[in-house]
Amino acid sequence: MGGGGQQTESGEPAKGDRGGLGGGGGRGGSAVYTWEEVQRHSHRGDQWLVIDRKVYNVTQWVKRHPGGIRVISHFAGEDATEAFSAFHPDPNFVRKFLKPLLIGALAPTEPSQDQGKNAALVQDFQALRDRVEREGLLRARPLFFSLYLGHILLLEALALGLLWVWGTSWSLTLLCSLMLATSQSQAGWLQHDFGHLSVFKKSSWNHILQKFVIGHLKGASANWWNHRHFQHHAKPNVFSKDPDINSLHVFVLGDKQPVEYGIKKLKYMPYHHQHKYFFLIGPPLLIPVYFHIQILRAMFLRRDWVDLAWSMTFYLRFFCCYYPFFGLFGSVAMISFVRFLESHWFVWVTQMNHLPMEMDHERHRDWLTMQLSATCNIEQSPFNDWFSGHLNFQIEHHLFPTMPRHNYHLVAPLVRALCEKHGVPYQVKTMQQGLTDVVRSLKKSGDLWLDAYLHK
Predict the structure, then answer these.
(1) pLDDT single digits (tens) 346-379
(2) pTM of the model
(3) For residues 244 and 394, is the Cβ–Cβ distance under 8 A?
(4) Is the separation of the CB atoms in 103 and 41 below 8 Å?
(5) What domains sit in the chain, N to C, each tagged with a CATH number?
(6) Cytochrome b5 heme-binding domain spans which residues (predicted)?
(7) pLDDT of residue 93
């Protein structure tokens, strides 16, 4: 099925046959469409999207999308221009893959933005992005990341060296576990960087470095992380689209989900106590249990043997290093304790920026408004920067996911000024406030659920 579709005598494409359902593109893409027509193609087997007013049929391409099927499917039937710019450091290279998928363009009478988005805000943010690119703020400094990797490897070496020199007392073992948990957490932030941007000019090097850091230094899967994390950036805090807020019925989050559960009389857990049991099953178990199950499941189901091999090198190295000191069961206990500590670090750092923020179903907002409603910043300080891997600048990271972390503080004043101009809230909290707001938000959501459960 083809190209621009059949045409009527007036030359307009015939409705119902515009572009077909295949992924083969538009044979020139001369057809024109309305937003209403584009929005009808938002189903699993029929997906169109718009980039710079051009309409693309991505139905078959989604299966080959390097960022994963879901992240591109989340924009089916929508304008994906801002997301396309945000995720692709070299748009001109990616456009080569778009050419065969082109089926037409928006009609001249159609607005550039869909779903009633604020055109002035979209244009101003694009102008800001153009300025960021001109000033080189999307270019990474390899030395920064090389030094960062060096400090992670130094922590690993110090932990092992202390055991060789001083032996395995309880206090020294605890200190070494803390150092390993710190190196694991910092390695997590580093692989997060490599997953988002090209630190080195040759992207193949960047790809290998991410495999090395998340696979060999952490024992996880780069593909699993990327496919999961890109969805979070594409639609943060949007139910059914952001995997980070898929709580598997263990928690109810935000203001709407608790009421929906309460009205339906759903009680998988005593949600009015979730701010208490969060401490027992949230931070302690996310990485040691939930993430490990997900990682193994993803690698085996996708037959991702490369990532599996990388992750196995971590465990081989760990047990070779620590078996002489602790034996098999002692080494298992140690890595479990390290994961336990790392999990607490990861949960609190990531959730203080997102969990207290707005959560909702799809609202088709522009890029800046969507990201700002789901994220907040934590005050800058040398400790906060290091402790959070610079994710205290969560707003800037979400607006420019391919920006290297050492430039967040430079673009932050520009983002704040744009938000003030358009009346978009730009939230900055202290570290203490960010951490306590996690618990407060869980309690608030639990109370909303209880009220709906008992009275509606």
Answers:
(1) 999 999 999 999 999 999 999 999 999 999 999 9
(2) 0.89
(3) no
(4) no
(5) 1-116 (3.10.120.10), 117-456 (no CATH)
(6) 30-107
(7) 81
